[in-house]
């Protein structure tokens, strides 16, 4: 079947091609009745605009770049669902690229997206991204940029994430309320903004409950790839359980760390929660089906992605004109399961 054109619509509705074109672009020059007629006919007959021709004529690509750390976890996938829904509704395609937690790869992704003429960029910075000069330089060229998930005070832009401090505070407070006192923290490196906020929430909960600080219970991973992260988790857990006074509970501060801690503890022969309680940030849909089921800090991943995309689209269209950038921190919730049940019950 031949592709329908503007000329075909114009002929069918006895209108000029120019009128049809303006109606589909929602031009103020065309009345609402005519716009409705044209839109209804175009939709009923599956009219698809020529994106390439439109891009050449208007100097717009109709695409948005998305840079993520890695696509292979459920939390990121849900954020991408939210981004895709908002972008599709607004008529934008998305181009997804992965930094693999590498700053060099992140810079390469941004250069490629800029070269492809994207109209804006959504980015969740890599674990190696401590300084944001490359993003500032890109933003200074006029490129709209929105940070999502991994937000930072070091970069001025619209940002959408969660309250990392409160999420970590609540998780640690939950373990304390369930009778655990020696609580270890497994986190990413100290220079990563969201990781430092989660460390602060953990430390604040200890202080709030008059539990002495123990530096030997805080372990930091420096990921540069899946195998390296796996090895790092196992090394840190072996060190923790080998302490003279080992932890009774473990708080894992990221999605990947949470599931890998569960795996490592089981491989080392530890019963959870009888010998080590566990809670972590995670959005895995398998949390209920793991053995034991995993207590988690749930992050509204879909909403993070959707809202970040909407912020960027408004910025591209000129609707976000405030000189003050907004940072949105969505609330988290605790999903409590078997892995962190009260100490008295765990001992049974």
Explained architecture:
This protein is an alpha/beta fold and 348 residues long. It has 3 domains: 6-49, no CATH class; 61-163 and 301-332, Rossmann fold (3-Layer(aba) Sandwich); 164-298 and 334-346, Rossmann fold (3-Layer(aba) Sandwich), CATH 3.40.50. It is 44% helix and 16% strand. It is built from 13 helices and 12 strands. It has helices at residues 6-13, 17-24, 32-44, 51-58, 74-89, 103-115, 133-140, 164-177, 193-208, 226-241, 255-267, 301-317, 343-346, and strands at residues 63-68, 93-98, 121-123, 145-148, 158-162, 183-188, 218-221, 249-252, 277-281, 295-298, 327-330, 333-335. Strands 2-1-3-4-5-11 form a 6-stranded parallel sheet, with helices on both faces. It has a 6-stranded mixed sheet with strand order 7-6-8-9-10-12, sandwiched between helices. Helix 7 links the parallel strand 3 (121-123) and strand 4 (145-148). Helix 5 (74-89) runs parallel beside helix 12 and helix 10 (226-241) packs across helix 11. The termini are far apart. The model has no long low-confidence stretch (mean pLDDT 88).
Distance between the termini: 70 Å
**CATH superfamily membership of the largest domain, which one?**
Response regulator
**Overall mean pLDDT:** 88
How many extended strands?
A: 12
CATH architecture of the largest domain: 3-Layer(aba) Sandwich
- Ranges where pLDDT stays below 50 over 5 or more residues in a row are none
Shape: elongated
Strand order in the sheet with the most strands: 2-1-3-4-5-11
In total, how many domains does the architecture comprise? Answer: 3
Rg on CA atoms, Å: 25 Å
Q: Could you tell me the CATH topology label of the largest domain.
A: Rossmann fold
Structural class of the secondary elements?
A: alpha/beta
Count of helical segments? 13
Helical percentage:
40-55%
- As a percent range, the share of strand residues is 15-25%
């Amino acid at each position: 079947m031949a592709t329908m054109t503007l000329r075909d619509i114009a002929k069918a509705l006895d209108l000029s091609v120019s009128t049809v074109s303006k109606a589909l672009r929602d031009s103020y020059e065309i009345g609402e009745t005519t716009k409705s007629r044209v839109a209804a006919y175009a939709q009923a007959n599956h009219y698809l605009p020529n994106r390439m021709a439109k891009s050449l004529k208007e100097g717009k690509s109709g695409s948005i770049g998305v840079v993520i750390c890695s696509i292979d976890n459920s939390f990121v996938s849900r954020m991408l669902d939210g981004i895709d829904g908002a972008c599709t509704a607004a008529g934008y395609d998305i181009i997804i690229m992965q930094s693999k937690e590498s700053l060099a790869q992140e810079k390469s992704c941004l250069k490629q997206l800029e070269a492809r003429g994207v109209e804006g960029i959504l980015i969740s910075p890599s674990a190696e991204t401590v300084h944001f000069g490359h993003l500032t330089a890109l933003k200074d060229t006029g490129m709209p940029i929105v940070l999502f998930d991994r937000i930072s005070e070091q970069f001025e832009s619209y940002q959408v994430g969660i309250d990392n401090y409160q999420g970590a505070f609540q998780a640690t407070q939950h373990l304390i309320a369930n009778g655990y006192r020696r609580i270890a923290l497994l986190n990413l490196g100290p220079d990563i903004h969201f990781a430092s906020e989660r460390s602060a929430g953990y430390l604040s909960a200890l202080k709030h409950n008059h539990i002495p600080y123990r530096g030997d219970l805080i372990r930091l991973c420096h990921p540069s790839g899946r195998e390296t992260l796996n090895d790092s988790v196992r090394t840190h857990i072996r060190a923790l359980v080998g302490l003279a006074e080992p932890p009774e509970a473990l708080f894992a501060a990221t999605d990947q760390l949470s599931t890998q801690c569960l795996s490592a503890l089981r491989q080392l022969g530890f019963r959870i929660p009888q010998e080590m309680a566990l809670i972590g940030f995670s959005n895995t849909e398998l949390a209920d089906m793991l053995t034991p089921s995993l207590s988690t800090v749930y992050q509204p991943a879909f909403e993070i992605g959707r809202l970040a995309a909407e912020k960027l689209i408004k910025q591209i269209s000129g609707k976000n004109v405030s000189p003050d950038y907004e940072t949105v921190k969505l609330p988290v919730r605790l999903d409590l399961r078997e892995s962190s049940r009260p100490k008295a019950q765990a001992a049974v």
